[in-house]
Specification:
alpha+beta; globular
Length: 161
């Protein structure tokens, strides 16, 4: 289980950070590497505004969507990971974001990030696996990864408030 050893090594780096942007950046880079994806966005939940927003989104500025919008919103609502290998055929897909950024999404995986109260505090979204489509193994690995990084992310979010 080489990937899980890599995650443990990454954990040492993660614990040395406390600024939210640094934590999110490191998490995004590691997630992309783990599943060989082109892009990663980490959406943060704002319950008061009913939105999901990105502090970091590869290649484009900040993204803000409703908690009930798109595949990421569905991940938030259902609390379940999503594997979408034909996004343009999925009615939940927000193709306007691709149009705005000029990026073409080929496949996607989204995984909820739970806080210590078992509430969804964020969603990791990875786009365009470099070879093939995302699969169940990627889903399992990213679910483990989301659970692994949740404490550091929750701490960074608390410090930012």
């Amino acid at each position: 289980m080489k990937q899980f050893d890599k995650i443990a090594e990454f954990g040492k780096k993660l614990m040395s950070l406390d600024a939210m942007e640094s934590v999110i950046e490191l998490v995004a880079e590691e997630a992309k590497e783990l599943v060989d994806a082109k892009r990663c966005s980490i959406f943060i939940v704002d319950k008061e505004e009913n939105i999901l927003w990105t502090k970091l989104s590869d290649g484009i500025g900040r993204i803000v969507i409703g908690t009930d919008s798109g595949i990421v919103g569905d991940t938030y609502k259902t609390r379940e990971p999503q594997l979408v290998n034909s996004p343009y055929e999925d009615k939940r897909f927000l193709s306007g974001i691709d149009k705005k950024s000029g990026f073409k999404t080929k496949n996607m995986i989204t995984v909820p990030i739970f806080n210590s109260k078992q509430e969804v505090m964020g969603v990791i979204q990875l786009l365009n696996k470099n070879r093939f489509d995302f699969d169940e193994k990627d889903l399992e690995l990213l679910t483990f990864f989301a659970n692994y990084v949740s404490g550091a992310l929750e701490l960074a979010l608390l410090k930012e408030k």
